[in-house]
């Protein structure tokens, strides 16, 4: 045998065994073998091969942790420790922040019964998030409102939601004060629920009733889709009363243990980029209007930014290409969702797809089923979303919202999509995004994209207005175009007018174009 070769010990590699007297070599004694201590390996002999350690794949770990091993809602002790140690507010020095136990004690002292709603309108982002979770663990039903609302705006919301109390900023160690709303008819809810206000589909006094457990399930799905890790630092630049910021960022951070840096309005590109660098941010989310403002500056995101997600509205393909050009080493995700669905529905990993899919919102998340109904000849139709994270019901004033439950855990989105053979979803517009001009349907989404792609334009929206009577006494459909820009200059006005003239017929022109400059204190998708 050559030197260095491995020699099998007697017994076939299982160690030496005893042999009964008088029995031939190799014959085993019935019963349990008695093993002697292993002999020392001669010098120069290699060690026997060891079985390699099998590592669990990361995606398998995510699947197990989100569906089998971990309950959807973290324990109160874990949430309290997270809020007290891993959450900070951007732009503020080392000031004392209310601890979870102090905010919980103030809410408990208010005497609000379990299952009643409390409206939270505290300005400090850290205290808002702490009050939201503290109310949940007390069995109350929290609802986040925009901070700074005046009394005449709070009263209709209290009455519409049947809220029992309002949580505002106050003195003392808790930093909050709880006052009774005085609403004549309190709405009974259930412990473990929360109300998320909708951003326009149901009016200012409407919202969606959700289970907090389903919100955490949705947060974990989104975190898995973008690869959020416990070692990440997440910058929250959107207001927390928006479902995208609350669920996909704040609650995702609580669920995964990623560090949170709470920002918010006012948003400036320079301040945003400085915050990314100052806090070593690795994950950030922006709305399309904030992306347009960011691309207006001749600066690149820092290399520490690993993941950037864009959600809340449609981002033009030209802006997507520019984002990829400025930050080619980072991961870029386009997301689609709606408050009624809990909210995240689908995600597109732009950095893994060809440019032909830059206008897609990706495939549905695991656990989400999408169907298209009332399919038109071009393959488009209204998207239906079936998910266990769908809202329980709509609360407040429903108005004329198209987005509502049409079946068990199924939401009619009011959004028009088409789906390619690989299952990727492409947004075509909303059911209310079409007007009849000159006998043909005009897509208002198409008009918004034409103007939104112009340099200097941050946000474009359309407003339907009642036109004059046409033939047969029918009301003509007209629309007004609202353009928000960084600076409204004569050159910008001329660019918009020229662009509309190049692509629209005379009967398709808006009845009015309203220009306004960006207000840094306001947020727009």
TrEMBL record:
CDD domains, alphabetically? Answer: AFD_class_I
* An example Gene Ontology molecular-function term: ligase activity
Q: Please tell me whether the keyword Nucleotide-binding is annotated for this protein.
A: no
Q: Where is this region: Disordered?
A: 1-54
Q: Which Pfam families match?
A: AMP-binding
- Family matches, as InterPro entries: AMP-dep_synth/lig_dom (IPR000873), ANL_N_sf (IPR042099), ATP-dep_AMP-bd_enzyme (IPR050237)
Gene3D superfamilies in UniProt: N-terminal domain of ligase-like (3.40.50.12780)
Keyword Ligase in annotation: yes
Annotated AMP-dependent synthetase/ligase domain residues: 195-387
Superkingdom classification of source: Bacteria
Q: Where is the composition biased (Low complexity)?
A: 16-32
Record key words, sorted: Ligase, Plasmid
PANTHER family attached to this UniProt entry: LONG-CHAIN-FATTY-ACID--COA LIGASE, NONRIBOSOMAL PEPTIDE SYNTHASE PES1 (EUROFUNG)-RELATED
Q: What is this protein called?
A: Coronafacic acid synthetase, ligase component
